[in-house]
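2024-03-11 09:14:02 INFO queue: dequeued item AAA family ATPase, len=329
2024-03-11 09:14:02 INFO validating residues
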Amino acid sequence: MKETPDRLVSVREHFGIDSDLRVPAFSEPEDHVPEVDPAYRFNPEVTLAILSGFTRNRRVMVQGLHGTGKSTHIEQVAARLNWPCVRVNLDGHITRLDLVGKDAIVVRDDVQVTEFQEGIVPWSLQRPVALIFDEYDAGRPDVMFVIQRILERDGSFTLLDQNRVIRPHPCFRLFATTNTIGLGNLSGLYHGTQMLNHAQMDRWNVVATLSYLPRDEEVEIVVARVPEMGDEAGRELVESMVSMAALTRKGFAAGDLSTLMSPRTLINWAENCQIFRDPGLAFRLTFLNKCDEAEWPIVAEYYQRCFGVELVGSTPGVDAGTGSSGPSR
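2024-03-11 09:14:37 INFO prediction written
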């Protein structure tokens, strides 16, 4: 692992953003560098926010609804900079010991000895690594206070068990993704999220919001992910699918639906279309069955608007049958 970036890259060339900025990068990837996704579409504002983290060592938080690609956005920026990246999901099972480290019994020269094993935080701090905390607002309070120590740009980290102070590597970077900006589960969508300490939120230098892609870009993403839908008929079907997703998002915003279709759901739907050869059946198995049955008629109405046919099996308690409910591929 190289200690520092050894070249500058053009933001215009690598990210397709109209900017003269040049950012530091590594010339060669190593094992912790994410793979480049050539189909990924960058949001200009969010990309520049993330690049400020890499260039100026800002602490960057990316917030937005599920499926918008928050973590992937950070990873794809890192991939194009060949910057090593480690992603940690702060679910309820992550403990302070997982982050800081703990004593473990190891065998040295056929003798069992107790040895301290560093957690992911001290390991990352000492290397040119971008550390991403996923689901940041789902972390346990004791875990969050561990993280608060490293939110200061030049803040040192004390390993109490080792009586050792770790100073951050000059190229260590810190990012986080969140659904609620630390406000808790106000919408009822994100169970398990917590209200975050305001003093901790204040330590994040940059907070960017990532929304869903424009319609045309979303169509291109789906087609890139499912190349079998790249012909004229396939694109027409994908455009109808994207329209359907947009209606569910409007219905969610208006309070008519309790769930919505993310880009991830759209891609799953397109892939399932290739398996079942029936967009209606694929839609039911991908999205409709995740919805509250009381909302099925609303979803069926959206489907009829986008595809011009009734959605078979959209009435609770009625056998779906095997009839087609849309143009097949």
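2024-03-11 09:14:37 INFO annotate: The longest strand covers residues 101-108.
2024-03-11 09:14:38 INFO item closed
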